[in-house]
Write the structure tokens for this entry.
Amino acid sequence: MLTAAESLSDRHVDDLIRRRIAELEETPFAPQADLPFIVADWSKTLRQHQRWMDLLPQIQPFYGE
């Protein structure tokens, strides 16, 4: 079952996607019309990162370059 925050987040993401599609429909030949766009909800990633920091403070995450 979704919490109120998750439901609000889902609606926000849906709204962003609809707005971007509407923009593309209005100006299909604009230079940026062919560019990809990403819509992401980072809240879960941030929660997992915070969980890592809380439970494993002695281990430093490393992200390769």
